[in-house]
Amino acid sequence: MTRMPVVNRLVGALPLFLSAGLLAGCINLAPDYQRPASPVPAALPTDAATPDAALPAVRELLRDERLRQIVDQALANNRDLRVAMLNVERSRAQLRLADADRWPTVAAAVNGTRAPNTSTGDQTNTFQAGLQVTSYELDLFGRLRNVSDSAAASLLGTEAGARAARLALVTQVASTWFTLAADQEQLALARQTLAGREQTLKLTELRVSVGAASDVDLHGARGLLAQAQATVAQLQRQTAVDANALTLVVGQAVPASWLPSAEAPLNGEALAAVPVGALSDWLLARPDVIQAEQALIAANANIGAARAAMFPRITLSGSAGVVSDTLRGLVESGTFAWTLGASAAMSIFDAGRNQANIKAAEVTREIAVAQYEKAIQTAFRETADALVSQATWRDQVTAQQALQAGEKERARLTRMRYEAGTANLIELLDSERSLAAADQALVLARLGELLNRLALYKALGGEERAVS
């Protein structure tokens, strides 16, 4: 006996349940979303705006291949970034769950019952095999739709958060690498100073032995030598600490060949230029600002879900399949049967629970608005600070270079005069102190310029900013 007529009727019953979905989402009780006005000036504080400026990619920004390799390793191994990416996967799964609730769940089932016949009172068996739908909610007031919209916004926000974490990691690795390079350069300069003061001490001891210098000069030379030794020890410690910090942020040991070397002084060529647009609207594309706005969108959708809970919740259930009084009959001689049930439930008294949920959702949205506005204000402040500092750091480096060149020449001439006996030890030591200070200050100024450029890149959203 063919089963095709029964199967055809079984399949034909499915549209009865699926067509109910056409009624879903007829009403959306969520407020219309409007992006809040930016609470910052319309223009960025810059005189060097680049129209339609495109920020360089990370590998274009970082011009040292060793630093690029370290950044690649950090992106692959950093645990904080790994957690951020896993949060994205979790949000994606939560969105799939929210979307699944908007569709009926269809299950294949075989049921058997033994109950008395209502007319004869005899015990009879009933077996049914087919498809079942249980508790399919008709989303007439958009509750499920808004829950899904909230989950979608949360996913977009989590993705933006992961991009923000990636940008923060890149700039942190680069900052740590440049700081290590600066400390190594300062350590090399301190060792040069130490060698020079050792030579000065020897010369002073010789001059004391022949009566050309006093014990006061000798004690002064020894004191400056000890000071130089202390500086070397301090910078050795700081260099080791910076190397450990780099290892931590990268997530594994860094090969020595990737570390900076003292023989290559820091300079502005280590980073590409960072172009800046004129309008503060640029900041809306920062990943952290996008994350804050998506949190606001999710909060807005949650208001619709809370409002929908005030209205009746209508659910459908049913089944369609083959019915027989024997298991064998399900295959051979069963008859087609279907059932359909509906229920509607609405809270009459809930002690104000639904109203409280609506109020909580509305307050949550207001909190999200404030957080979004603060994110924009923070972005503007960070960008403005970096822009204001950009030109002054360049001027400071230029001035420090001139100062260092002058002090270097003064120290050279003073040593020549001291060795010739026409300058005293105080003059020599003063020139050496000034040169050492100028050398260290130049290193710090170059480091400050590089770190400020990294801060500007991060403030503008870097490679992770959204593309309009």
UniProtKB/TrEMBL annotation:
<keyword id="KW-1134">Transmembrane beta strand</keyword>
<keyword id="KW-0564">Palmitate</keyword>
<keyword id="KW-0472">Membrane</keyword>
<keyword id="KW-0812">Transmembrane</keyword>
<protein>
    <submittedName>
        <fullName>Efflux transporter outer membrane subunit</fullName>
    </submittedName>
</protein>
<keyword id="KW-0449">Lipoprotein</keyword>
<dbReference type="InterPro" id="IPR003423">
    <property type="entry name" value="OMP_efflux"/>
</dbReference>
<dbReference type="Pfam" id="PF02321">
    <property type="entry name" value="OEP"/>
</dbReference>
<dbReference type="InterPro" id="IPR010131">
    <property type="entry name" value="MdtP/NodT-like"/>
</dbReference>
<comment type="similarity">
    <text>Belongs to the outer membrane factor (OMF) (TC 1.B.17) family.</text>
</comment>
